[in-house]
Structure formats: C-alpha cells, structure tokens
Design a protein that fits this description.
By secondary structure, the chain is α/β, with parallel strands linked by helices. It has helices at 43-49, 96-99, 109-115, 172-184, 199-208, 223-232, 245-252, 268-276, 300-303, 319-332, 349-357; strands spanning 3-10, 17-24, 31-40, 59-60, 65-72, 84-87, 126-128, 131-133, 146-150, 154-156, 191-195, 215-220, 236-239, 258-263, 278-286, 308-311, 341-345, 363-367. 26% of the residues lie in helices and 27% in strands. The strands form 3 sheets. Strands 3, 5, 6, 9, 10, 17 and 18 form a 7-stranded mixed β-sheet that branches. Its cofactor is Zn(2+).
C-alpha cells in the first residue's frame, strides 16, 4: 500500500525546490519506510538540481537523512520499526569492493546513488498523480517527510542522540573525516593541509585534530571560516585571497611541503596548488567534484618523488562501523559538529539553498 507524503520536488534543471504531495511505493524487499526528522543540504544536491548531472527530473533529492523507522519490507533484518537511523549511500553488497569492505566504490555506485533515479531493477520508488518521479537518490531521497530507503543506506544509531545534530554524518562529514582517517592516516609529527573550509573541509580539520598530526593548515578565502577552522583544530590558516597557497604551505612546513592535502573545493586550480605543495611521498586526496569531464594539468616530474594523487568517494567509509563511531564522538563533544550546522524548517528549503549558495551558512540542516 502506497504512502502519501510531502516532498521537495525539482521539476527541471535550475528550477527551485517546490513542496508537493507525492506517493511512496510500499517497502519492497530490503527497504524500509522512514519518518524523517532532519536532513542535511549538500552541494551535491544543488549540483543535481541545477541540471549538472543526468539525474531524471522531476525528482526528489536529499541524501543526508536522519529519522525513525516506521515499517520494513521483506527480508529486512538490520533495523526494525522504532529504530533511530542515519541515512547514507547505498551499494549492491555483492561486488568485489562491497565484499572487501569498500562499499563507496561499489561497481554499481553511480546508477544506485547519483544518476539512476530508480531501484536497481528499474522500478520507481516515488510517483505523483500516477507518474513516476526521479527518486532513490543515494538510496533514500530524504527531502521528504517520509522516505523509502534501502536497508544498505540505513545505519542504526543511539536513540539518545538528537537526530537533528547528526544528519550530516551520512555524506559530507564522513567524507571529510574519511579523507584524513582512511586515506592520509597522519603519523606523529606529520603535516596536513585542508583546501576549502566548508562542511567537508572543516570535518577534515576536526578529524585531523584527533590524530598525531602536529601541523594542520586550513586554506580558504573567507576570514570567518578560517577563524572557525582554528577553533576546530587548525594550527595555521592561509587566506587564499591574500597569499599564494603553495608558497604559504612551503613556508609553514620549512620548505618541505605537506605530508597530506585534502582538496575540498572542486577547483582544478586549487587542486594544482595542492599538488605543488606536497612533500616527497606526500598524498593529495581529491574530494571536491567539478563537472564531469573536468581535467587538470600536473607536473609529472614533480610527482616522481613518491607523490600520490588519490580520488575519494564518501570517505571510503564502511558506514555500519564509521557512522556509529562518529555519533559517539559527537555525543562526547570531541567532534563539535554543531559548530557547522544551521537549522531550517523543511518548508524553508529555498532559503537554506540561498544561504548555502551565498556562503551564509556552512551546513544547512532541514528539520521536519
């Protein structure tokens, strides 16, 4: 039996989010119906809404959900009605990378999460007046009062933690944290640079503050974000509007360069600056995603001293392990995620979009 719910629908590329009633299919095998409590707004949502990716529109986006399970479909064993859950990406569970503990690199990740708009079998999860809509975004489409969610997108969490405070863990936060913990893995005394002090970059700064790295450099053009980065654990900041990034990093590392760099801006010019600032055997983690087909020129000879450039999706996280750990850190105050969040009523989604686009807020979280 279908469920009618209120959702924010994007009618076409570049159109605003419009609240309207939609119908959710009943939970099928491996699915659950979740009452949304909160959901983060991410730049990926805005990129798809603008028409920058081939997601089928009209459609319902949203991929940083948090809520309470209301019903489950056949064969669901990991959650039950009443469970509090954080929603993250989905994956097939059976390919080589999924079996190897790297579901963010699932063989079917793109169609299941970002561009397919349907279940793996091609059926629709959301419709309006009998016509199917693009849905199943990251296995959830959480810009709605209720969402039909893949079990593999669901992570059961401590019910004592306010869901409004942890919704961004499903994408942006675990991406920034994972860049540091899962890829760079800083050793004692190492240096780390974060390019871009948005939600992902500041999550990387907070993660770096919980490692043995002794030099954590945050780079941005906004002075207030650089000040926040210092408060969250950066030992140094660089204002990219006032200084050359590569030269500044070299100066702060006694000419050696950085052991690790997180590129979270999506700018190929900034990426190149980060690559040029690497120390021998250093690693640049590419997190920011420019439009498909974007290329960057690198000095090949400069890479020969063991330097690495590594792409990253969703922190290379195994969500069932990583998200509960992050929830515990938020609960203990060691991951002060609340410093990034501004709450908006779901009905004010367009105001949240404007504020995020204008840089007035770092991580908007919609509440229901």
């Amino acid at each position: 039996m279908s469920t009618t719910t209120r959702a924010a629908v994007v009618e076409s590329g570049g159109a605003p989010f419009t609240l309207t009633d939609v119908e959710l299919d009943e939970p099928g095998p491996g699915e659950a119906l979740v009452r949304m409590v909160a959901t983060g707004l991410c730049h990926t949502d805005l990129g798809v809404a603008s028409g920058g990716l081939p997601f089928p529109l009209p459609g319902v986006l949203g991929h940083e959900g948090a809520g309470v399970v209301e019903a489950v479909g056949p064969n669901v064993t990991g959650v039950a009605p009443g469970d509090h859950v954080v929603l993250s990406f989905t994956s097939c569970g059976g390919c080589h990378n999924c079996r190897d503990g790297h579901p963010a690199y699932c063989a079917t990740w793109l169609p299941l999460n970002l561009i397919g708009g349907r279940r793996a079998d091609g059926t629709s999860t959301i419709s309006r007046d009998g016509a199917p809509l693009g849905g199943h975004f990251f296995g959830q489409s959480s810009f709605a009062e209720r969402a039909l969610v893949d079990e593999r997108s669901l992570v059961k969490v401590d019910p004592n933690v306010q869901l409004e405070s942890i919704a961004p863990l499903g994408c942006g936060v675990q991406t920034g944290v994972g860049a540091v913990w899962n890829v760079l893995k800083p050793e004692a005394g190492s240096s780390l640079v974060v390019l871009g002090a948005g939600a992902v970059g500041l999550s990387a700064v907070m993660a770096a503050a919980l490692t043995p790295a002794t030099t954590v450099i945050a780079v941005d053009k906004a002075a207030e974000r650089l000040e926040l980065a210092r408060e969250l654990g950066a030992t140094h900041t660089v204002n990219a509007a006032e200084a050359d990034v590569t030269e500044a990093v070299l100066a702060l590392t006694d000419g050696r360069g950085a052991d690790g760099v997180v590129e979270a801006t999506g700018s190929v010019a900034v990426l190149r600056k980060g690559a040029d600032a690497l120390a021998p055997r250093g690693t640049l983690v590419v997190v920011g995603a420019p439009p498909f087909g974007t290329e960057v020129a690198l000095d090949v000879n400069a890479l020969l001293p063991g330097k690495k450039v590594v792409g990253l999706t969703l922190g290379d996280s195994e969500t069932q392990t990583s998200i509960p750990a992050l929830v515990a850190l938020v609960q203990d105050g060691r991951l002060p995620l609340h410093r990034l969040i501004t709450h908006y009523p779901f009905a004010d989604i367009e105001r949240a979009v404007r504020d995020m686009s204008a840089g007035k807020t770092i991580k908007p979280v919609l509440t229901f």
